[in-house]
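Minutes, project check-in

Agenda point 3 was the complex the collaborators sent over. CS summarized: two entities, 589 residues total, and the question is how they sit relative to each other. Sequences were read into the notes so everyone works from the same version.
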Amino acid sequence: MKNSKRFVGNFVIASAIAGIVLLATGIVVHACTDGATATEVSFTQAWQPCDLNLIDQLWQGWGVTDDSWNPAGISDACNEALPFAKVMNAIALIGGAPTVPGIFHQRGDYYLESRANQTPYHADVYLRFIENNGPGVEALSEAGDHTDLDCPIFNYPGVATPNPGNPNAEMLAERSAVLVHEMWHHWQNANGYDSSHMDGPRGSCHAGAGACDWFYPHAPGSALPDGTTSDQLGSLNKTNVVNGVGLYFHSPYQIMAEFEGDVAIYGPAFIPFAIRQEAQNVGNYHLSTNFVNGAGFTIGNPVPFP
Amino acid sequence: MRPSIVRFVQILLVGMLCFAIGCEKKEVGKLPNVPFVPLPKQAPVPLDPSSVEKFVDWVSTMPSSQIGDVKAHIALVNADPKVVDAVASRLSFRNIGSYERQLIYMSILGEMKNEKALGPLQDYLFSRECPVFEEQAALHSASSAPKMSILDACAGLKSQAINMIAYINSGAAKAVVLKTVGGHASRTVRLSAMNAYLYNNGDSPEAIATVRQHARPDEAKFVGLPRFSSDTNPKDFAARLANFYARYPEEIPPQPKPVLQPKPGKGKPARMSITPTVGPGAR
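CS then shared the predicted structure for the full assembly.
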């Protein structure tokens, strides 16, 4: 009986220790291929990623509040090697988008649209961290509810033999644009439009299943039927579908390409050159790849140091 | 123990637990203001065969205001074949360093305008180590074609290669660009080749005619698209954009039709994550 009591006691202690170990393992950071590029880190010199008051606002406002973020760096919130801080850096880049006239859309519009909390653009949604949603996927939205962010937009590329088609492209401008893109799916849902992509390849879209959209052309600062221009604050949220030609509307790939164009050409002085160059490169990639109809412009001049 | 004391201890424990894991409700108000400061200018790094990585470290982290310094340092060595070799040896799809670094290696080679860079850039452009989406898709049946909603980084990097070849703009470089206009597997790369050829040949009517001759028939309409850049006249851009869709009405998208009642969603669930904290290495 005495031995039995000791056994029970030992069992309880062992169970408690095991529970603690399991709990600790659960929050040990093991995310994607962790690491940060020099460009990723350089942008953090332009803002204060370790300011917990600011991080709290971004964490809440952009709905990075699912427990999937616990093992993805939420306890090391300004360590850019980990996904949580990379999301913060991406949100900050959106918050640093240009504000000058003559761009596609204002910083305030991209910033408000990309937020997860209820906005004039969409209902309350949240962001989840997903290591792998299947091959070829970097993000996925269940419109009206949540968005999954996958490892391909976080992976550090400093390892040998990247996967063809995705050399572990840890890229800040593209990650920000993905947030803008994915939140537009929630806008589509909130406004009663089909939030799915079309399958490719088809027409001018040379991408795979679920990666094609229509492109609704408008020039930067274009006049809208209500007397405003598209580069005025609030104009991103308008859908002046006036007729079959003068269509003012946006699809998810379109809004991300316009964001990349604005950052590439008019990115403020606190955005590193390399981020602007990346934005131009990937913006042009999306313009030429993801639209069933042709996108009628390109971003920037094709020079070595634009 | 009296029940009231037990109750008090229970509330205290719950409170402590909440404090530990962060139960407090945060006010969600206006958009957070991210205070930005300009990036500091960095000391330029001279470019030589032994300093390529340090030079690229500088370029990959500097503000755009230092582009002039970068060009000046490249101009000092643009005839040095050892520098070309040293930079070109970093072009890789297996050890890319980072996407930005590969872009910058190619930018240096383009800026040098050294004919010796043409070979490595061309090898990169047509490399089979990094098949573009169209090449991957050709390996699969239609039903098992890759999803590829992710960025096709192979195509993105190869489009930079053709831009830099076009910037070299020698006779041999032009020949490579025109071959690419109609012959590369990637649509992204083909359209980049069209645009870069025109840019480096003054967007002249002759250049437009030449590129159209080499373009695939279904892509000839994309020769001469307007460029959104800081030196673009907004009215000219808008007119050219409108002209493209007027000339090719089949490229006008269909009217979007509201098709669904908004899905109600489940609303944002009660927060389940722990509260963000900074690690020991925080600045």
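Noted in discussion: The longest helix of chain B spans residues 3-21.
Follow-up: revisit at the next meeting once the mutant set is ready.
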